[in-house]
Design brief:
Distance between the termini: 124 Å
Number of domains: 2
């Protein structure tokens, strides 16, 4: 950040064996950190300090570790780094890295709630409410009892106590129940059509016999 021309994105990428996209993201975070320091905002470094303490990271060890990581990263990420660098060739005119000093979002003022979080919570609540209404409509269509939790305890002398719990439709597959109802209605319609065809066939036979008898009677006369 102190010398954007000397320590360019490509230079840092080659030195530490990282892709240019990752270096770009790190520089953006450093720009945000500098901006917060200028505004006298407290940085949340508890996670960083805790991880460094757990991992045993100290300043004296960083020089050797950085060289090892650089060699290993260049060997392991050579192809990925070269491909990422090829995509970033058109970004050399970055005007002394001014874009890393900008903020692409605004921090929330003290005492105010984030608008996006509230919108997400409302959307989640609306989704759950819609799901509940759809489930109740399906249950009403399937004619299943509501979900209840009634307990009935049976106690007898010399026998263990029995507890019966009525949970209603808790373990009823409403979709399967609706499918069975539709299948039953379809079979009922098919049976009704078959009965209707039989009745019509019997009527045609009766009419044919009646017409045959009338013709025979007229011929005999």
């Amino acid at each position: 950040m102190t010398d954007p021309i000397k320590f360019s994105v490509r230079t840092l990428s080659e030195r530490y064996g990282l892709s240019m996209q990752r270096v770009d993201a790190i520089l953006r975070l450093q720009g945000l950190e500098e901006h917060w320091r200028k505004e006298k905002k407290q940085l949340q470094t508890g996670f960083l300090d805790g991880m460094e303490e757990i991992l045993g990271v100290v300043d004296q060890q960083k020089s050797k570790a950085d060289r090892h990581v650089s060699i290993q990263g260049a060997a392991e990420l050579g192809e990925d780094t070269s491909m990422a660098d090829a995509q970033m060739d058109g970004e050399r005119s970055n005007r002394a890295r001014e874009r890393y000093q900008r903020l692409f979002w605004e921090p929330i003022a003290e005492g105010q709630d984030p608008a996006v979080l509230g919108a997400l919570q409302r959307a989640r609540h609306d989704e759950l409410e819609k799901h509940r209404q759809v489930a109740e409509a399906k249950a009403a269509k399937a004619d299943v009892p509501p979900i209840i939790h009634n307990e009935h305890v049976v106690e007898r002398l010399g026998r263990p106590t029995l507890r019966f719990i009525d949970v209603g439709r808790l373990y009823v597959d409403v979709n399967d129940r609706i499918r069975r109802i539709k299948e039953s209605e379809r079979r009922s319609r098919l049976r009704a059509r078959r009965r209707e065809r039989k009745v019509q066939a019997i009527r045609r036979v009766v009419q044919t016999r009646a017409s045959s008898k009338s013709e025979a009677t007229s011929t005999a006369a």
